[in-house]
Amino acid sequence: MAREGGRPLSRTRVAAITAAAALAAGTVGIAVATAGTPAKASAAAQPQSPAHYQGPRLTMIPAQHDITVYGYPNRPNSKTVQVFMDPGIWLASLGSSFQLNVGRANYRSPVTLTQVINTPGGTRVTRALPASMLDHWNGVEGMIRLTVRYAGHIVTSHSLTFCPNSYDPERAIPDSPASSPYPLQGCAPFDPFPLGEVWGIAKGWAVDPSESFFGRPISLVPNRTYQVTESITPRYTNWFGVTPANASATVNVTVSLPPGFPPPPPPPSPTPTTTVSATATASSSPSALPTPTVTVSASLSASPAGVPASTFYRLPTRARTAARPAGPLPALPAVRTMKNPPADVLPDLVPLPAWGMNIAHTGSKKVVGHDYLDFAATVAVGGNSPLDVEAFRSNASPVMKAYQYFYKNGNVVGRAPAGTMGFDKAKGHNHWHFEQFAKYSLLSANKKVVVRSQKVGFCIAPTDAVNLLLHNAVWNPTFIGFGGQCGSTTALWVREMMPVGWGDTYEQFLAGQAFDITNLKNGTYYVAITANPEHVLKETTYRNDISLRKVIISGAKGHRHFVVPAYDGIDPEHR
């Protein structure tokens, strides 16, 4: 999704992530546990036969048995075409939800995989699964196999990593819940320092396992019909008690060349034209609406049998009373100001280590340029409450007074002054910024500031799932990204909010926001990310508000290089 300055956030680094991270202070880092209702102790990690398995009934369901897809030649006179294959086969979870929790206790701990099972008796059981099932944080490795056959022979076969968190889950049966509680943004994390993820398929819902495979084309021969099978592989049919009848589904797929440019659309068929006239006499009662008399004249190209085309129809109407409350609306309780709110209503802001570093050079052979160290910075929210900063206009002022709101059990219990918000008219912004959220600095080897980023304004919003295993974490925020939440120039009120378990990432690549290292000596430096630098926001603790990431700079001006050592074994970077 786009962030400040209009550049999209890249996900190309996600596939290389091999571990996740706990957040530094323990309020965002937790021992891996089931979110929500307490669960019984984990069952022994072993495969289970369908007869003994108490979990959901996983079933492969084809949407259609026969489909036609278009293939596109990848070169002139090619005998094959490239097909982006999605046969429309769904994996449904029947009987109960299919849920996997993925997490780690801290940076140095191994990633664990836990199945959460809601048994028919109403209890919740956690079951440890082998971590070798994980394709890092991208999903369950090799759980699905897609096989294409022609005339009984295998043409191609692909092992798929399965991500239960589909971007487009669908209801599989009529009595399924109206909505799915599970995250919709996929499995692969955006930043390299996640702590906990929840993957799942709701009871009676289904997801498309080919969703992640659709971008990889397959070479096939046009005008042939292939048999495409998606199946749950034997390792997972054993672990999840899947019967052979439910483990696979096959669709006949006919490959066709795309048609030529479509002909112009036919002229629209004659449609009724209407003229409406209305007369109204106002009621003597001010609380009633006028009573209209409506006459409609319809001109039909083909009239219904026995009805002349010029027939006038009088629509029945009746007077209606304007909706209004029966009495005065009750006043909402006043939100009290809290100077020292208790910890159980506070969030905890924790900056992750800087990541996504790069060195950019401006200038040319004729113009002396600058070297900039680009980086990404993520500030996550843990603790006991979302971060909710709201600002209000007063006396047409160009600056809004901001307040932090505190929650308990989902209800607002108080607020406190939290600085100001100002409107940023710069290109790529054009919204209100909260100016006390974070700051970025480049430190020398002895931890002294050598360069400060000029990034001072923030539109706070969730962009990254960091730890969805926290007790108060929200799996599906109302929105992801800052679009529409930071107000226009005419706004009276702005609300910037980030739920527990999520982080807000900014990529610093603009001049002034990235670090100008043109005149810095080669050597060791630290990128410092400071959350809540002025302590304007109330938190459970301020002790974890700074993260440091080591970076070693080398090379001549205009040709600088860098090495970022792994942070506790996570995310080494270099160029």
UniProtKB/TrEMBL annotation:
The Pro residues compositionally biased stretches are 259-271
What name is this protein filed under? Answer: DNRLRE domain-containing protein
Domain of life of the source: Bacteria
Which keywords does this chain's UniProt record carry?
Answer: Signal
* Signal peptide from the UniProt entry: 1-33
Looking up InterPro entries in the UniProt record yields: Lysyl_oxidase
- GO: which molecular function terms? copper ion binding; oxidoreductase activity, acting on the CH-NH2 group of donors, oxygen as acceptor
Q: Where is this region: Disordered?
A: 257-293
Compositional bias, Low complexity, is annotated for 272-293
Q: Does the keyword Repeat apply?
A: no
Q: Does the keyword Signal apply?
A: yes
